[in-house]
Amino acid sequence: MNSLFALAAPLALMLPLAAGTGLSGRQEPSAPQGDAAQQSHAPQTNPLVAFHAQQSARQVRIEQRVVVRISPAVPAVRQNMLADLPQRATSRFEEAGKEKCVPLEGIAGVQTGSGNRLVLFLRDRRMISVNLDKSCRARDFYSGFYVERSKDGRLCVDRDKLQSRTGAKCEVESMRRLVEVRD
After folding, report:
1. pTM summary value
2. Torsions phi, psi for 128 (to 5 deg)
3. Which of 5-19, 122-136, 137-151, 160-174 has the lowest mean pLDDT?
4. 157 lies in which domain range?
5. Residue 45 within any structural domain of the chain
6. Residue 118 domain flag
7. At CA 24, angle to CA 21 and CA 27, rounded to 5?
8. Domains identified in the chain, total number
9. Which of these, 18, 42, 16, lies nearest to 31 by C-alpha position?
10. Strand 154-156 with 91-99, pairing
11. CA atoms of 3 and 6, how far apart (whole Å)
């Protein structure tokens, strides 16, 4: 029964079209004489034909969106960064001055930290600690993150949102430089 309806539906839709174009072979009745003829001078058209005639592109909008993927730092990069440290003294890192923005091209990799903190490894051998929203977990970003490239090409505090590969979106709350402290 459903297949019969599926076959008949297109034919039923085309019936008014065939009647309006004269495919049925009969003439349309002429317009009545008198007051009714003066009220409607426009010819009667098929609604489907009128609908297709009105479809035209009035506005074209081209949008471009660039998304940058930052992947986890490979162990070789981390080892090279730590290789310059002297071996005689143990060292640790502490957060120092605040950063407002970091160029996206300068980010070499990312590593998850504790809580809601990520560590960015920059190409100029600096390390930046990034604090995310309190509701976000750094472990969601174990395989890196995506960020939409802004006009200035920078990752900034209170503006940009990082998206993990699992779909979590978190805003960057603060960034601080990590400096080496020797014991």
Report:
1. 0.56
2. -125, 130
3. 5-19
4. 67-84+91-182
5. no
6. yes
7. 75
8. 1
9. 42
10. unpaired
11. 5
